[in-house]
Structure formats: C-alpha cells, structure tokens
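Good day; I would like, with your permission, to put a structural problem before you. The record follows directly beneath this note:
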Amino acid sequence: MTVSLFLGKEEVQMQKAQYGILRFAKYKGPEISNIEAHNERKKEKYATNPDIDNNPTNLNYHFIEQYGSRTRKDSVRVVEVLITATPEFFKGKKKSEIRAYFQTALEFIEKYQDSETILSAVVHMDEKTPHMHLSFVPITQDGRLCAKEILGNKKKLTWWQDEFWKHMVEKYPDLERGEAAS
C-alpha cells in the first residue's frame, strides 16, 4: 500500500511496511479438538471470529495430510504455528503467488521440524487476510517429545522469528523484520 502525503507543491509517497508473521502456541490436551474444529472449518458459524466467511471455505487447502505421532500424557502434545503476513503484502497477489508464499513458509518449518511430525498445514483463504495454521507434534531430533527444547524461551522464539524472516526475505525482499519480542 502506498500512502501519499502532499507537502505544499511536493507529493511524498511512503510505502507501508509489510511483515511476514509467525506465531507459536502450545497445547496439552482438550483444547486440541477446538483447534482442529477451527482449522478444518467444522462449525457452521464462528461467533468468536466474525471475519470468517463460509462462502469461500472451499478455497482453503491442505499442504500435508495427517501423520500419527507418539505423545505423553503430561506434555505439550501439539504446537500450532500461525503463518501469515500483513494484509498489504497480499494485496494484488494471485492465488498461485499466495500459495507460493505459504509453501516457502512450510519449507522453513521443515528445515527445523521433521515433516513426519507435522499433523496439519491448512491455509485459510476465507478470512480478510490469508493465513496458514500449521500444527506439529514437538518431537526433538533424538525422538523425544519436548516443546520446550524446540520453542525454548524468549531468546529462542526471537531466533525463530529472525530465521523465519531471513528465509522469507530471500524470495520476498519487500518483507521487513518486525520488532524483536513484540
């Protein structure tokens, strides 16, 4: 989006910043079914999210089919990653370009998380801003269930954000890195 300012006889154009977005959430049990219901659009109405328009729901798509994974009763069993960008980034883009953006984001996650642990990667095209809900079982490289090791603390989450931006900006140079820890 370009914003124009008129200063006397001069017109100054400023480009609004565009950001790629990556958000993590951890789930231990009962709420997992609610996440699935939302991601798979199993409800007819969504009172908590009025942006959802069920008419284009058929445009939503999956990247990865469901895999079985080991879980422990007392641990975080699913990590959900929300991947999107600012609305300005998607303006004027074709569906194939949007799909390519999310494919690139999926490739980023697969660099650090075995694709066999990914349960679901659903892109929602039926809201104002396209976004992907990616869910995975947090299995470490040595086969342990440990979300803390994968997501870590604030420093590790900042690392994830930095690496995501570095990965995405290679194909999408207009994306800017948002403020760390915001």
About this structure: The beta strands are 2-7, 10-15, 18-27, 61-62, 78-85, 118-124, 131-136, 175-176. Residues 65-72 have pLDDT under 50 and may be disordered. The CA atoms of residues 112 and 150 lie 9 Å apart. The first strand starts at residue 2 and ends at 7.
